[in-house]
């Protein structure tokens, strides 16, 4: 019993504990900061979102040849990307696909139609980035507007 009281009254074991915890926390935060800085410098972890630039941007229902340019966020053309056109709120007969050339351009022959009493609609574009690139297409792309005259 006497040893238990002596152990209970002994405060030496906890005197250095708060200081050691603070030191461990500071060292841990510093190490995490260094690791995060190293990771942010690696460009392989980042992906670049692609978009399309249709020309013309607005068409009427019927047959049209639409020039498509695939671009990155800086406006640079992207070669070897596959463009997929499908009906959004405007109708297309099936799905049209084409691959961009070395200049990042391609052409699609589209025949959009609108439903009865529909004044406008869109043709949607998806992009399959070139294989082995850091590009991605996860956001909505620019659409082709179809308006009834």
TrEMBL record:
It comes from the Archaea. Residues 96-121 are annotated as: Disordered. Keywords: Membrane, Transmembrane, Transmembrane helix. The chain crosses the membrane at residues 21-47. InterPro entries: DUF7382. Residues 45-108 form the DUF7382 domain. This is DUF7382 domain-containing protein. It comes from Natronomonas pharaonis (strain ATCC 35678 / DSM 2160 / CIP 103997 / JCM 8858 / NBRC 14720 / NCIMB 2260 / Gabara).
